[in-house]
Model the fold of this input.
Amino acid sequence: MADEKTTDAKMTDETSTGGKKPAPSRRSILGWGGAGLALGAAAAGGTAAALRGGDDASPSASAGDAVPFFGDNQAGIATAVQDRLHFASFDVTTTDRAALVKLLQEWTAAAARMTAGHEVGEGAIGDNEELPPDDTGEALGLKPSRLTLTFGVGPGLFEKDGKDRFGLKSRRPKALIDLPAFPGDNLDAARSGGDLCVQACADDPQVAVHAIRNLARIGMGRVAIRWSQLGFGKTSSTTPDAQTPRNMMGFKDGTRNIAGTENDRLGKYVWVGQKDGPDWMVGGSYLVARRIRMHIETWDRTSLKEQEDVFGRDKSEGAPQGMQRERDEPNLKAMKDTAHVRLAHPDSNHGVTILRRGYSFTDGTDGLGRLDAGLFFIAYQKDVRDGFVPLQTQLAAKDALNEYIQHVGSAVFAVPPGVRGKDDWWGKALFA
Amino acid sequence: MRVLRSSAVTAVAAAAALTAVSGCAEKSDSKGSDAVNVTASDDKCELSKTSFPAGHVKINVQNKGSKVTEVYVYAPDDRIVTERENIGPGTKAEITATIKAGSYEVACKPGMKGDGIRQKITVTGGGAEKKSDPALDKAVAEYRKYVQQQADETIPAAQKFADAVKNGDLDEAKKQYAVSRTGWERTEPVAESFGDIDPKVDVREDGLEKDQKWTGWHKLEKSLWDDKKISDDDKKLADQLMTDLKDWQKRVGTAEITPTSMANGAKELLDEVYRNKITGEEERYSHTDLIDFEANVDGAEKAYGLLKPVASKHDPELTKELDKQFDAVKKALGDYREGDSFKSYDTVGKDDRKKLSDAVNALSEPLSKLAAAVAK
Done:
């Protein structure tokens, strides 16, 4: 919602990056180490297609398939956006660096199993009836559902209350800033921040919830959930040929997002490169999450004309104002100065471009009978200082949409590169 | 109080094994000559035989001493298999019980005090109970002693509370309320295994079943803190509470306790904390939740400490983690200590409650693996 995407690269006609092609078999995934994963999750579907003809004779691919866990980049960023989200932020409660490292190793092993559609540990039933089962069991019988688990580290891991908690202070990337306060923010500390995060995306909500629940359980005594957010509807797609989803305001949003197949734009705006550094972040990205509450009731009482003026798009087709089709190049001058699309467009922001992966949420109603709904905004970028910060500075100051929304939660995380093999684990290079 | 009625510690089994009622119909195969004769005196406990077949057993007691005596049959873990109290000087009593094969002890307690004068007996026959680990028997016996001691200490503490209520002394009753509950809270899973006592003494208003009269601690809690007055009915309830607690004190020794049920009981105590204390539901009027919290943790740690020698052999990593997390919970709780008590829980904010909740989670996860480590 906070931005409109640039078109510095030509929209590609390539097919979807996932969801429509068969995923590789388990054996293919396991035997698929190192350099073969150069494209990582970004090209999951395509690579999977190339591997077809292995021992996976499955004729149809669907939302049930597995997305490869191992790769140069973590899955869940350029991966074709799944239908559901469970995002969790954790506080590290242990003060013991070795205990934290052990947790990350255990998490990685569990994540590799769950994304492949397996149970964690000894499974959901187990053979010792005196023991609580390792896996909580609610995903038994469900498909992998394109589950991705994306791991990040927040500023608090490097320094908290002036303390260098784990000897990592000097390794904090410059790009991992504490976000500045923006005008209009009404942030709830209990829904903001966190030392670690895991973004679980899947086509089946129960698979996403199961993943976070089991990671949280494994983490008890070392980490504790600080907050978590369920998202039920994707609001952006990284697959341009797919139908652009509508947000809770009824508008198509994220039309010009970076596609998972656009390796040049991903390299330019999303993945941290060798020259960007630090070394442990190369192949990683930076995640900004914002819980944006929408004043649904007042929006619904707003005339169609005003709604379209606020966004700068036509509600029916999603076309930029003054144009005919959704994917027509926007004519920014045809929009009001305060239109959301105009203000978020790269041309209004010196080319600033981010990859969006947000989800609509509805957490029931608040105590006043109003729908507690909005957008859980997730953006990935190479550097927060060149991405979300300038963009939100502009939007917070001028966006006509501000009358109908409020940012109530905020967090920023450094998302390390992908796990490259069996001896690798989430954040290994950071702790090296 | 607990919500679910399924405790790992079941008194039902114990009650079934115990048919020590005096009027118990004597079976034809239990002839006089098969009976075990116990001659009790002030310093002796003599048995006519120390080995007899399993099944229906008749014990004839004769008190030749000058003091009132009791006779008990104990299992190796000190569970009471059967018992008879109040056998006056010069009188006889007959006890019948169904006893499974195994090793037991008969105890005479002249003056009805202490561990008694004990004699080992062997009950022979097939279907013997699995041979138990002496280290675990010792743990269970020690825990049984602890449970009894908690019940014994509760009675005078609860009496002070009941007396204050009966005197209409609101301030004194408030002062004695939480203290009177400590022994119960420390051993709650065992106390709750007597399905009929918990609903009388520790039920909350929302836990009442249809047509159930609200009695016990929490009804009085509401009167003291919410209504701010003591009614005539409350005074009767104070007496009722004492009657019910004495019933508990008397029966608690018969509870079926196994190493596994001790371990699960420890976990259940932390479950109690997680469900009812962290949320402030248990003591919603008095806000003395942290006192219960500590008692629950004490009781869990006691059971764990007794099982630790065995558990640490099977799973040293687990016991190391449990030691660490018990300390962490106690430390977290310590932040709210005020004099010899705790802060009123309504003054503990959401952030602080979350910290306590996280600490309880950190302990409860490994604690859920203790039973398996003991049973290995």
About this structure: The CA atoms of residues 263 and 371 of chain B lie 5 Å apart. Chain B touches chain A through 18 residues (CB under 8 Å). Confidence is low (pLDDT under 50) at residues 3-32 of chain B. DSSP finds twelve helices and eleven strands in chain B.
